[in-house]
Amino acid sequence: MCRILIFGGTTEGRLLAEYCMQQEIAVCVSVVSGYGADLLPESRLIHVISGRMEEKEMEEFMSRESIRTVFDATHPYAVEATVNIKEACKRSGASYVRVERESAAENGGGGREASASQTVYVDSASEAARYLKDREGGILVTTGSRELAAFTAIPGYEDRLFARVLPSAAVICACEELGIKGKHVIAMQGPFSEELNRAMMEQLGVRYLVTKEAGTAGGFLEKLSAASALSVTTVVIGRPSEDRDGVSLEEAKKLLMESKLQTCSMAGSENTSAKRKISLMGTGMGGRGQMTLAVAEELKRCDVLFGAKRMTEAAETLGAPADGILRIPIYGNREILEWLENHPEYRNAGVLYSGDTGFYSGASGMAAMLLQEPYCDIYDYCIYPGISSVSYLCAKMGRSWEQVKLISLHGRDCDVSLEVSQNPAVFTLLGGVHTVKELCEQLLNHGLSNVRMTVGERLSYSDERIVAGTPEQLAAMECSSLAVVMMERDEGREGTR
User: Which GO terms describe its biological process (predicted)?
Assistant: First the structure.
């Protein structure tokens, strides 16, 4: 379970997320926009929460997910966000760590003394606009889209302003609503090199550059140097004066590692008589609404989920919490147990199986392993059955299944023609080389042309298809690998349902 939450959307937030991935630290990362989420590395250990959260929502999330430590790596100018994060931490009991961006002055860039003759410092975007209002020449604004409205007070801003903003559709739309359009919108992701800044200002022919003192990671020094080389006046909106008492990026990484070691230590020092739990859960055919309430409730108690990729990716739809739960796309029994051995901090594991756990399911193999040493001394397990494909299809057909012979061609072989000749009704799972076409050919080759076949494809999904007919009629049918077949020797109505 994630015990660490990073508020990002910045270079520092991304670097911390990458560090967590490298060190195998499970972490939640909160970003405001989908664009910010796209910049994060894809990893089973990184759980992204996209969208703005108010203070109450932050508090509820921290409490619900038992967050122990919060790293505030938001932008230096996101003062309101920092205030909300601090208050949420205070109310939820989580530890607060501010990750400070290294300033230009701290990095030897001279800060407020740099190129003083061509640099003007102001306290706000509105003050910058007032300074530029009575001056002539093009203006490159690199403060972000939220500050642009202040610059519309400049006469003729539609022609004078060039806004460099993030390449997001919402941001570009916001620029257009302010009257900043076409070539006056430069949608690019930074930070930018001195050479690119210089080339851009030369191309635009601007006389003023507006920027925030955003620190070294924000490319502040590169902007100053490029502007100085072109004799462009830089208008700097100074950093907020609030003392955040933060830590550096490297110090934050050390704290993350300490948190990981502490979590593992706590997991190892817990009462050894309290075994870890593994829940083996049948999730039905996969469509929404096919899971039992017992499985849905158990999903909420798990801190890590295993299963085929199709299952883990659909876990949220099936009932798992959207955030705070680790999903590992592996389903081999030994692979799962080895992973759990290497991650003792996870106490409640869930393994997802399609259909029912008692019908040709991998749950039986896992249960058998958990009864053996040393696993029986480490884990308790519980099996949660699901709705099977045979019960689902029979319900759709309007018949019972107590006299149906159950077999499987999913990863195994069986003499289907023999089973059909000896039983009035046979149900089978398909998979691999065993297709509807192959099954029809086998029945026809053994003189079983009068068998009524009912094929169920992608049962419970929105594109579910159930088709009935004889082997001859269905021999050319193209079908998904997620298919089952009922074969009956009695005469029956044919058609599509």
Answer: cobalamin biosynthetic process; methylation
